[in-house]
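Raw record, unedited: DUF1835 domain-containing protein
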Amino acid sequence: MIHIVFQQADIETLQKAIELDATLQGEILHIKDDFAVGPIADIYETEGYQNRRDWWKKVLENSPYTEQLDIVDDKLTTHQLQEKLKDEAEQAWIWMAPNQHDVCGYYWLINQLKEFESRIHILSLNNLPFINDKGSIFYPVNLSEIPPKEFIKAKKLARPVTISEFELDGDEWKKLCSENGMVRTLDGGKKIISREVSYYDDKIIAALTKDAQKLNKIFQTLFTKMKVHTGDAFLAWRMKELINDGKIELSGNWNNGWKEISLKLPGAAEEISKEVDINA
């Protein structure tokens, strides 16, 4: 059995679940790219793939993640998966939580596994209740939120991806690739909506004040109040764009890293910020 997850935190959670339930024993593969943001036109072609790498290089510049561009090789991971699946006794379980990161990763991956359709299983956690460590019912958005003991329940959700799903999901991903929106959000189930690159800009502006704040504090505000999350590197890149547009004032030098960066609203933006609701 091969488990496939889309977020780093999911690996440790799944490993703990495997320790509790030997029937889950298997290798864990991690699809690392966040396909919910960035260009995806011609994503399987050399030009489209390189265009996406060039974009990520720009986004990760001056971030704590600059080295990650060289270690993220989902094409190689997928090739290794395909080679393993040539063993007809092998099967793959794709774990998909209800967030745009997982769903977009699933769409990108499933298009490359059709020849193994009878042995590809999906575990969709959409709108499913679990019990947390305090004994309360909750609906997880990320796989890592589920207590390891609850995976005994979760594994019962595994089912083969149907032939029609391979076709329909493949067509849906092709449509998203042709739209090539720079942001993609989840609208329930597996419904992904293409958005403009500025989708999170209002939330960023709403997290700022006329007094300068450190970048990490701004991130804390955003991640606490935003209903639809994205990565900090993408948000920082958008902040740079907003600085270039004169909508944010910068203190510090990006070349010295995030820790030295402080941001605030320009004077003219003070009244505008009051009209924006970050919780929307």
